Amino acid sequence: MKELGKRIGLEDFFLDGLEDIYDAERKFMKCFAALGIAAGHDILKEILVFNINITEKHLGHLKAILARFNRDGNNGKCEIVGCLTEKASAMIRDMETGSPLRDVALICLVQIIQHYKIASYGNLMSLATEMNHQKVKILIEECLQDEKRTDLYLTEVARNFINPSAK
Predict the structure, then answer these.
(1) In the chain, which end has fewer C-beta atoms inside a 10 angstrom radius, N or C?
(2) What average pLDDT is seen over the chain?
(3) What is the pTM of this model?
């Protein structure tokens, strides 16, 4: 965020949000790779690998949006990611490799990440709409819809495969 005491406008707030989600997506991509290795169930592994591809697409969209505003995205420092990736590391360390319970925990963590991303993209889409950045809004909306689909798919996989195997 900008320096304290300096008045910022809506566009500054929007750009800070873009830089933060750009930083978050870069860090989450590494996290998803580690979680994919830690997952036991093949379907969960596939989702996490697929999520890396989706995240790469989102990073491309964000980079293009930031370039429109002469930003490179290197100023974003998403603090939330650090907490979530630390939790992921602890979870991987503390739970038995290949156990169904570990997969339950991984899905819970990934869904928390998804919900953070859904909230971020939803807010950015609202701001883009308010500032009449229609082309930017379309790219952000695509990211938002991808995140919502992934979240729904994770819920279905958890209900039908992962959670029943952990009983």
Answers:
(1) C
(2) 90
(3) 0.90
